[in-house]
Amino acid sequence: MGGFPVLIEQVITFVIVLLVTVVVVTVGFVAAAILRRKRRDAFFEQLDDLRQQVAPLVTGVLGRTLDYRQGVAQIKKLGEKHKPALIEQLVMEKLPPADQMPAMTQLCEDLGLVKQWQTRLGGDGQVRGMSGTLQRLFRVGYLARARSAEHLATIRHRASWPMLVKALDDPHPDVREVALRGLGSLVEPQSFAALVQRLHQVILDPDESGLAFRTVKSAVVSFPLSQAIGLEASLRHPHRRIRFLCTDVVREMVEKAAEGHPDFYLDASNFAPSLSELFLNTQTYDENPDVRARSAPVIAYMRDPRAVPVLLGLLEDPEWFVRLHTVRALAKPRFEGQLLQIAARLADPRWMVREAAVRTLLGFGDAGFSVLYDYFLGSEDRYSREQIADEWQRAGVIPTLLGHYAQQPHGRERQVLEQLAHMGKTSYLVGLLLGSSDVALRKNFLQDFGRHADRQIQSWVAWLATHETDPDVKALAQARKGEAGMGTRSR
Prior knowledge:
Elements: H1 3-62, H2 68-81, H3 84-91, H4 101-110, H5 113-121, H6 132-139, H7 142-154, H8 161-166, H9 173-186, H10 192-204, H11 206-209, H12 213-221, H13 232-235, H14 240-258, H15 273-281, H16 289-299, H17 307-314, H18 320-329, H19 339-343, H20 351-362, H21 366-378, H22 382-394, H23 398-407, H24 412-422, H25 427-434, H26 439-449, H27 455-467, H28 471-490
């Protein structure tokens, strides 16, 4: 029993020591937080003060309102008084307009920023005995390396492309991705081969490359069409996926070059003849259907007379998605002479191909409408007619159809409307008629379809009989409503 008070005394002592320790540690953390906050406040005050001095100098130098040498000297002098990292941050804080970017590049060079960024990415300051990975980790953190790569690309320092290519092997994935995007923005022709090599690598050995395929492809596609010749060997590669992806890269390059130029053609002036021969004679017969599918849009831009027969052959390809891409590729005014071959795809077994055929034909205006009318009225394929009717509704074609019907009530438009009514496609029609202010249209439709058994049409007729303001149309609607009622009673 005599040892019990001693035990209590030891426990009390331990608790007191523990509480004192907790209090001391807590006070230490609070003091550290307060000190850190004060340092941060002081840092941002310094940064704001420095910004007020640096920003006008940078603006004046780039805008040529300040002597260049004098401005650079003043910025360097400020850099000697403050941390170099602050000057770097403030110079790159706000990018100038595109016309001032060359001056921005020169300014970064003269301030030593370019050399500093290159050093972070390059091989300066290596430590002997360390592996390449440890060398990079030892020299500078990955965030600084990534920021350096981004800055070099942002100011479009083309001479730094070798450093960015080297950074594709950086141990950190963020640095590799930033360098890759940087090469895509610089579009330096000498770096194209290295990017194509990376494209092969991400396909053949994705784990070793450490790069995302879509990012590599995006960087390659950023280059102009003139660089497509650098993909010729890849288009002949024995690996089927490499052939497919490089064919798709050429397709995207071509479509990017054609954007905004409706009369764009591929010929010897903008597309290497060897590439044209490759697409016309090899890619369209490749054993990989993906290659054939992505070849169609490229061939559709060729001025070569062999292009049309090759595309018509692809329209009959056994793989449905090859036919799909070909139908879409033919949606150009130059292929108006192939409307009947395109219309043949309206009976394709695949609904997506049928849908694409309808959309392609609609793009040809009245000529396409005429072909669609003929097919819609003459076809016994229920699914094709359903596809055409649905696509007409989605594409907003029905109002045009009704407009033509109002002008020519005895033309093919009447037959098309009658077919739509028999198919039960009347809800959209009636909705348009209810909102129409065209008296002639309502009168023609009442005369032709006022007795129709479709409930949607009967409801519309009944509504007209009550709400119509034109006396002739109102009288006709009342007569049609009465006739429909008598027909119902007799049944």
